[in-house]
Amino acid sequence: HNPRSYRRFLGPLTSLRAIPPRIFSDRDAYWHGRSRRTVCHDSVMQQQQQQQQSSGWYEEDGKSMEELIEQIRSNNKYASSKKDVGGTVYLVGTGPGDPELLTLKSVRLLSQADVVLYDRLVSKEILNMVNPEAFMVYVGKQQSYHTRSQEEIQELMRMFAAELGQGATVVRLKGGDPYIFGRGGEEIGHLAEQGVEAHSVPGITAAAGIAADLGIPLTHRGLATSVRFMTGHAREGGQSDIDAAMATAFDLYTTLVIYMGLGTLEQTVSTLTQGGLPRDMPAVAVEKGTTPDQRAVWAPLENLHTRVEDAELKSPTLIIIGKVVSLAQGWRALYPPGTNNE
Q: What is the pLDDT of residues 177-222, one digit of tens each?
């Protein structure tokens, strides 16, 4: 409990002034509502990527697993490591987008990573925090297009850990939290079966980060006694599971948070209103929440799909439905208390 020991433990992370300018271009500025600052200059990121490309440590799309492993072998950093022990894999959640929402542990692991496998939703500002000497492998996914299959991603993590050996750090970088619709359980389970040491580092999930940014308390006395996280995106052959879950989501005092629900929003609204949720239940859809490109569409539940279509929101979009949405300033600006929600 000695304050001096605690400061020594945290090291340079105890002060924003100690964070390199390449991460924060304006350390004294903070994001307020829609007036948001630029966290890092594009030119800095481009320069770093060019340096990595010139040294052979920036992975372009299309390389096979064998080619990737061969590139690892060509680097002599871990040539003398004990290969019978293997490196450690960390699934690191990066939160909803704002780099200032990263945990101290996440920042530390990024700075010492040897290999980073990163998703589509990880911003360049966060990638700019990665060890410049790390081997970067893009494994992003989006609807109807995956650069690599889930099985291949899991095998890459195992192979990198085995090839680099003892002392190496392999980071699987994910948006949000690895264990909330991030398939983190599958990846940790696979690595455990293969005898690879693996850990999950939590991130602020989109529901918590975006709701806080908008001023929506997910629970509130008298309005919401529980909160329910749901997905609107089904695995292949799993749409019936989604339909069954939606068919039970009619509690007036439960806040619904739907991840990846943009493509099925029309069906979701129909199911919920037919099941008993009031058509004027406050709702909001948020694209790229907590980032400089954030856009929010506020509407009564029955009108949400139409207004989201009119606004042409794109993925990633989070949907929040419930009485607590009416507490946010964004809602009250459009629907002042005492007026009809139309």
A: 999 999 999 999 999 999 999 999 999 999 999 999 999 999 999 9
- pLDDT tens readout for residues 85-136: 789 999 999 999 999 999 999 999 999 999 999 988 898 899 999 999 999 9
Q: Is 141 a catalytic residue?
A: yes
314 is catalytic: no
Give 303-322 pLDDT, tens digit per residue.
999 999 999 999 999 999 99
Is 241 one of the annotated active-site residues of the chain? no
Rounded to whole angstroms, what are the CA distances from 98 to 58, 238, 251, 260? 24, 32, 32, 19
pTM of the model: 0.78
Cα diameter, the chain: 71
Give the sheet arrangement for strand 282-287, strand by strand: 226-231, 254-259, 317-321, 282-287, 295-300
pLDDT bin (cut points 50, 70, 90) of residue 21 is very low
Buried-exposed string 130-148: b where 16+ CB fall within 10 A, e elsewhere: bbeebbbbbbbbeeeeebb
Single-letter amino acid, residue 324: V
Of 98, 119, 177, 213, the active-site residue reads 119
Q: Is 169 helix (H, G, I), strand (E, B) or coil?
A: strand
Distance CA 211, CA 115 (A): 32
Strand partners, 284: 298, 320
Choice among 129, 230, 260, 281 that is catalytic: 260
Catalytic residue among 105, 124, 141, 323: 141
pLDDT at 187: 96
Beta strands in 203-244 (DSSP E): 226-231
Of the candidates 131, 227, 212, the one whose C-alpha atom is nearest the C-alpha of residue 171 is 131
